[in-house]
Structure formats: C-alpha cells, structure tokens
Design brief:
Blueprint (H helix, E strand, L loop, with lengths): L7 E5 L2 E4 L6 H15 L13 H17 L2 E8 L2 E9 L6 E8 L8 H15 L5 E7 L3 H9 L3 E7 L10 E8 L12
Parallel strand pairs: 5-6
Antiparallel strand pairs: 1-2, 2-3, 3-4, 4-5, 6-8, 7-8
Length: about 190
C-alpha cells in the first residue's frame, strides 16, 4: 500500500486522483469554501466549514496516517486549476467492505468527473485484494449522488430509514453496492 500513497490515478482530460499532502491544504480550503452551498444539504461535516488552512493541514495529516495504517483512503481530485473534489474509501460498513464517499466542486458537477473517479477508486479497492464489496450511501433526495453511483456501476442494494444528519436529508438512505467478481468497470464517456 505504500506505493499507493504517492500514485496518481489518471481519469483523463488532465484530471487525476492522488493522496493529498499538507501543501494541498490551501487549495482544499478554497474548493470546500466554493462548494459549501452544494455540500451543506448532504454532508454533516460541512456544518463545521470553513476550516482554517492550519486545521486543514492537520486533517490532511490524519488522512495520510489513516491511509498508511489502511484505515481509510482519502484522495483529492485535481485538474490544471487545482483541487476540485475529494473521494474516499472508509472502513465503516463491516468486514470485507469499504464505503465510498465523494463530493465535487459545483463547477465540475454533471460532467462525469465524480463517476470516473468513483469507478477508478472502486477498481483500486478491488485491486489490492482486501475489499469484497464497496458501498455508496446517500439520501433518497440526493439525486446527483445517486447518478454517480449508478454511472459508476453500482447496483441499488436497499433502502432504509436513517437519522437525518444534514439539512437536505429526508431520513431515507439508499445503499448501493459493487461486489468483487460481479462489478464491471463501466464504459464512461471521455472527460
């Protein structure tokens, strides 16, 4: 996993994923601040933004340590303009599973960037042999997140009641799944 900490996952069109460094803190602060209107309805952590550059550096340090330990895997989406989003694989869905979370700057929403990144990280999760399944969890009202999961090749597994943690949520959670051996990397239009 050490090589994965520095690798770039190319998505096309000059867009790539990589693990963040503390030098990315200012860029991430900018991207989050510019995205707050679209993040706040769905992401409970957005209520604690904006974060200072110093605090963001500390958070990136935690992400890097989690990555090193194999606890969580956080990647930033970059293009020529800098940081434009984040995707992460988190160990919060039980043994053999990872949960994929994501957000994208609104200027890049609806362009396929999140779907490309989600498919690439799903393939990455299956490539190191440990994950048997990857899940995406989103609220039933979050149509954009549902579109990303669907385009990235995930199948709707179930719908269940869920606590409302962010202002846009309805309390109905959708769980999408990609399972090793059944998931096929989708053919997505070029970026």
């Amino acid at each position: 996993m050490d090589d994965a900490a520095t690798e770039r996952i190319q998505l096309g069109g000059g867009i790539y994923l990589r693990q963040p460094t503390e030098d990315d803190a200012e860029e991430l602060c900018r991207a989050v601040a510019e995205s707050l209107e679209t993040l706040t309805p769905w992401m409970p952590w957005a209520a604690h933004e904006p974060m200072s550059v110093r605090d963001r550096r500390a958070l990136i340090g935690e992400w890097r340590e989690d990555f090193r330990r194999g606890a969580n895997y956080s990647f930033v989406i970059f293009n020529e303009a800098g940081a434009i989003g984040v995707q992460g694989l988190h160990r919060r869905v039980g043994p053999g599973g990872l949960e994929l979370g994501y957000w994208i700057h609104p200027a890049y929403a609806g362009r396929g960037v999140s779907s490309h990144a989600a498919a690439a990280l799903t393939a990455w999760a299956f490539s190191f042999g440990e994950a048997e399944f990857v899940e995406v969890h989103n609220d039933a009202a979050n149509l954009a997140s549902q579109a990303v999961a669907r385009k990235a090749g995930y199948q709707l597994l179930l719908q269940r009641p869920s606590p409302v943690d962010a202002p846009g949520e309805t309390g109905v959670e959708l769980v999408w799944e990609a399972r090793r051996g059944r998931w096929k990397q989708p053919q997505l239009k070029e970026l």
